Amino acid sequence: AGANHLTPVQMQASVVAGWVEIMSAGEGGPGANGNTIMAYLGDSSLDRDLEAIMARARFHEACKNYDASLDQLNQAIALQSWYVPALLEKAKVMMSTKDWDQALDMTSRVLNTEHDNLFALRIVAFCTATRQSSPTELDDQLMRLIRSMDKYEPGNGLLYCNTAKLFARLSGRKQDVLRHTTGLLEKALRLEQDSSVFHTEMGYQQTLMGNLQAAMDSYRRGSQLDDTNVMALHGMIHCQILMGDYDDAEQQLEFFKAIHDDDGPGSPMMTFLDGLL
Question: What is the pLDDT of residues 57-66, one digit of tens each?
Answer without folding.
Answer: 999 999 999 9
